[in-house]
Structure prediction request, 153 residues.
Amino acid sequence: MQIDKELMMIDIDFQTKEETLESMGTRLYELGYVTDDFIENVLDREENFPTGLPTSPYAVAIPHTDTDKVIEPGIALATLKEPVPFSSMGNAELEVGVKIVFMLAVDAPGEQVTTLQNLIEMVQDERVVSNLATVRSIDECSKVLEDFKAQKN
Prediction:
């Protein structure tokens, strides 16, 4: 699944994961990708099933929720000025300073698994994570994503 430029938020100054998730969810909602209860569901799911990944050189989060909250599939991407604490996937007691957030809005359960697998493969590439964390424009961000996709094919 491609990340549309309208869903990219670059070098944003958020202080908390809640602020980050609410802002990204609002963008998805305002552009017609998700239902009005999507944000609440993402926040609830994040509390019970944290999505922070201690990737290198910066941590990443991949929040998402149930497919019935999605009208049109998409992925929102935010790069953060400063890391924001998220609970780690697999160990909610551990916090990781997240610099990149991919918020999934996927409308088919099978597609959600595939999208997660593809994103995890991408964020395991330290060069991609480093490049995404330092982009300063939507065009730079798109180029990093396109380069990774081209390298993979």
